[in-house]
Structures are given as structure tokens and as C-alpha cells.
Amino acid sequence: MSDRTDWCLDPNLDFLNHGSFGATPRVVMRERVDLLERLERDPISFLAPERDLEASLDHVRHILAELINVAPQDLAFVRNATDGVNAVLRSLALEQGDEVLITNHGYNACNNAVRFATQRSNAITRIAEVPFPLEGPAQVLQAIEAAISDRTRLLVIDHVTSATGLVFPVRDIIKLAHQHGIRVMIDGAHAPGMLPLDLRAMQPDYYTANHHKWLCGPKASGFLYVRADLQSETQPTIISHAYNRPKPDRSQFTSSFDWMGTHDPTPILALPAAIQFLSNLRPGGLATHMRRNHEMAVESQVILSKSLNVEPPCPAEMIGSLVSIPLEGLSLSSAYQLGAALYAEERIEAPVFEGIPFNLTKQDSPPCVRVSLQCYNNLDQVQRFGEVLRKRLNLG
Ligand SMILES: Cc1ncc(COP(=O)(O)O)c(C=O)c1O
User: Binning pLDDT at 50, 70 and 90, where does residue 360 land?
Assistant: First the structure.
């Protein structure tokens, strides 16, 4: 079990927002500091790829590959999911009139990377309109299928949506896209450490995710998986030595992502300590840990829906560890005021969002409040949060 003392979090704050930037256990921070001290003792040996760095990164790559069931050589490291999405979108050769399909639940930064790539090629960003609240995963598939055209080249889909906290049926979405000859990039920013991941079974063309959210690694690190035959056309966001200096014994793909100029690799190198910490929390390891977080999320959905007098906006099967509840009847500006007051006056950290980030058709979509719970949280905090919401929203 983990208690609050394993973490640096302010004990006077009910931190119900693990999802935004994660949190890192003290033991993982200490590992990172040890690594930094080793780096500073002998910077050349530590950082020169051909001395220690390649081997150190390969060690982490193998551990991660095992966790998400993929071949290590198909994994590159990136700073974060935004970086991973940008690398793919900026490498993509789009032609005038080509379409890239995103959803209205997508993360703004990543959707902007799509907009940038389409605008510079006179291509089109199309948005599939997934409803929220919704009854089940079939509605996600229907919305995406309805927006596919014969010009769709790429689908960029969140595995777990940020504002609405939905686990999208990515395996079925990928199957559907492949039937239409369309590539799929999954933005799995939240997925590792929240959901069991099996990339061999899922078969995305590209998948990127963060280590610093639910795997609790130091900020900032993540991975980018690219299907083997697409790797030669996928460049990192920073072009460096490997572009014209291929190494006979290493793939161009891993070499070019491994060195993007001088940087701090310790957030990546401390990842095994984070995986070990989470795996040792309970008998049954990481799988049990993720299930317990999920169970806490499902109970939170019930508690908060009751507190706010609304129906749960999605079935429990579409929840991972993020729970978003509509604040019906509240304007967006009042919702933002509520969010600020929660932090400043109630010492509760929980984000308040525009419900559907890209609400094109202006469907009835109230703002939402989100909780994302990690093993340092408990349901008493959620109960108190529900009572605070009732009081502040005059719900009796
Ligand atoms: C779905 C999704 N994609 C991408 C990101 C961006 O993560 P980062 O800022 O670490 O790149 C987030 C962050 O919350 C997210 O929720």
C-alpha cells in the first residue's frame, strides 16, 4: 500500500487531479537525483550515446516494451505526448485535399498539431462529433465512421479523452480505419499505468503516451511507437546528428529520437523505478493497482453524480481512472469561478472544463468537473468534494 508520505503532495490539499501532470513518488525522485549526480560526475560517459546513453536507454526500452507488449526496436522516447503527436504529424506527407480526422473530445494541443500539418499542405482537418453524455462505445464508432471519407489519410484518436475522461474503443476504431485503408495515431497520453496495454493486439500505426502521468515517472518523458515500415519516414521534432550519420548497428529511427541535442535523459532513465514502485504496491502488481484505481473512479462517478443530481454521463466500462461529471445549468464562466474557488477557498484541486472541447454543433454540453484518483487518494476526499459542490451550487 502507498500512503501520502510516499509522495511530496501538500497534505493540506485534496489533490484530485493526478491526470493533468501526474505526481512522482519520493523514491522515484531520489532515483532521478542519483542519476543526475552520476551524470555530473562524468558527463561525457553518461551522455555520449556510444558510451553509456544508448545502452541505458535500451535498458528502459526493453522494460517498457515488455509492459506494453511491443518490440523494443519499434519504440522511441519523446518528452511528452504532444511531442510524439507532433513528430508524426510533421513527418506526414499530406497532399491538397487529404483529410486528417480528429474528434471533438481531442486534446487541444494535439489537435493543433493536426491543424498545423493540414494547413501547410492545403489539406483538411475533419472533426467527428462524439456525443457526451453517451450510452456506450458504439456511439464513438458511429461518429467516427460517419466522418470518414475517401480522402481520409489519418485518424488521430485519444485512448482516454482529457476533458470528458472516456476510454475510447481503440481496438475497434483501428479495425474500422484499417478496413478503409486509413492509418491511425493513438494519443494515449493517459493510458500507461491506467489501462492494461497490448500494442501487438491493438495494432495502431502510431501510438504515443506519457510516462509522467499514470506511470508516475518524473516529468517529462513519454514514448512513441511507430509501425516498423513507417519508421523511415518518421522524424523527431528536432533533427540532429543521426539524420546524415546512420549507425551500422542501430536503426535510424531509434538513433534519431535518442539524440535530439543535449538534454536531460534522467526522467526516462528513472522510469523503471516508477514501474517498480507501482508494481510493489499490492499483491498482483500493476494490474491490481490499476484495477483498484479504476474501482475508485467508478465509485466516484456514483458519488459525484448523486451529489450533482445528474445521471452518470457514461457507462462504467468507458471509465479508466478519470471521471468527468457535467455541471448542468452552469455557465462556463461560473464554472471557471467555481474551479478557482475550489482551490483557493476549499483546498481542493480538481479541474473544471468546457464539456466537449470542440463543440462545433453547439450541442447541449454543460461544463464538467473532473476527478482523477491515484492510490494516494481515498473516497472520503471524493465525498467531501461532493458535499462542497452541493453547497457551492446551492443544491441543498
Ligand atoms: C489526451 C491528452 N493528450 C495529450 C496530452 C498532453 O500531454 P503533455 O502535455 O504531457 O504532452 C494530454 C494532457 O493532459 C492529454 O490529456
Answer: low
**CB of residue 190 inside a 6 A radius of ligand 1:** yes
Q: Give the model's pLDDT for residue 356.
A: 77
Ligand 1 centroid from CA 244, angstroms:
31
pLDDT category at 362 given cuts 50, 70, 90 is low
In angstroms, what is the span from residue 255 Cα to ligand 1's centroid?
Answer: 25
pLDDT for the residue numbered 396: 78
Q: Please tell me if the CB atom of residue 158 comes closer than 6 angstroms to any atom of ligand 1.
A: yes
Q: Is 80 in the pocket of ligand 1 (CB under 6 A)?
A: yes
In CATH terms, 4-16+284-392 corresponds, of 3.40.50.2300, 3.30.470.30, 3.90.1150.10, 3.90.1300.10, to: 3.90.1150.10
Same fold flag, 4-16+284-392 and 30-275: no
pLDDT value, residue 359: 63
What is the strand order of the sheet 368-372 is part of? Answer: 322-326, 368-372, 352-353
Give tens-digit pLDDT for 115-128. 999 999 999 999 99
pLDDT of residue 280: 97
Atom of ligand 1 nearest to the CA of 20: 14
Residues whose CB is less than 8 angstroms from the CB of residue 162 and which lie 6 or more positions away in sequence, other chains included: 19, 105, 107, 189, 190, 322, 357
- A 10 A CB-CB count for 83 gives 22
**Alpha carbon nearest to ligand 1 atom 14, residue:** 20
Residue nearest to ligand 1 atom 7, measured at CA: 81
- Does residue 237 have its Cβ closer than 6 Å to ligand 1? no
For the chain, state the CA radius of gyration: 21
Place of cell 490499476: 290
CA–CA distance, 396 with 387 (Å, rounded to integer): 10
CATH number of 30-275: 3.40.640.10
What integer pLDDT is reported at residue 281 of this predicted model? 96
Could you give the percent of the chain with pLDDT greater than 90?
Answer: 93
Write down the domain spans for the chain: 4-16+284-392, 30-275
Whether pLDDT at 298 is above 60: yes
